[in-house]
Amino acid sequence: MTRSFSFGGHIFEVAGDAGLYWPDQRALLVADLHLEKASAFAVGGQMLPPYDSVATLHALETLAGHYPVETVFCLGDNFHDDAGEQRLGGQAAALLRGLVARTNWVWITGNHDRGLTGRWGGQSAIEVEVGGIVLRHEAEKDCTHPEISGHFHPKFRQQVRGRMVSRRCFVRSERKLIMPAFGALTGGLDAGHVAIMTACDLGPDERAEALVPMRNAMACFDLSALSALAK
């Protein structure tokens, strides 16, 4: 039983239920933190418990302490909006400041936070290439390199004993690996949704699969039958 898999010529280990640890690079990858989402809703008059940023960063701190992490790559939509970087404060800010101080922290900008300024340290980029793999927020159809991205918040849904069970999942094809959202206050898109299948950019003989983290293992589900709907 293992939570490791290969992609782009490298081995990755599923960290928690929504992160990746990359042993060759001693790197932790997460996507779609959506920090300060609750406060963004509050600005619009919809009040939600303001604990999402602390919960998200606590989970990230736990993973960073579990692995020998030197670099953290955050693959876009790090904050729920451009102003979220300024709203972050208190315990959440202290957690983030500590994490950034002890790692090489790389912010990949996303569609929610294109104006990210690096207020809390680290470096920002639209995309980076590491070990021959491109890291960006949203998959690009014409990219010929192996690519890891986020954006779609994939979830795998299945009927179990009469009720629908939903779990975060990774979606992998030959050249694309789409990560689930790491944020505590994020929804999800069905792994077989046409938008995700299109982003997988499958060739005629390629297939896509959902990688679903379990407690001590990882379940794989073939999504190839659904990919025909995206053509």
Structural class: alpha/beta
**What spatial order of strands do you see in the largest sheet?**
1-2-3-4-5-6-7
Strand percent estimate: 25-35%
H-E order: EEEEHHEHHEEEEEEEEEEHEEH
Q: How would you describe what is shown here?
A:
The structure is a single chain. By secondary structure, this protein is α/β, with parallel strands linked by helices. It has one domain (4-230): Purple Acid Phosphatase, chain A, domain 2 (4-Layer Sandwich), CATH 3.60.21. It has six helices and 17 strands. The strands form three sheets. A seven-stranded mixed sheet has the order 1-2-3-4-5-6-7, with helices on one face. Strands 8-9-10-14-13-16-17 form a seven-stranded mixed sheet, covered by helices on one side. The radius of gyration is 17 Å and the shape is globular. The termini are far apart. The mean pLDDT is 89.
Descriptors:
Purple Acid Phosphatase, chain A, domain 2; alpha/beta; 17 strands; seven-stranded mixed beta sheet; single chain; 231 residues
Quick structural gist:
The protein is of the alpha/beta class. It is 21% helix and 32% strand. The strands form 3 sheets. The protein has a 7-stranded mixed β-sheet with strand order 1-2-3-4-5-6-7, covered by helices on one side.
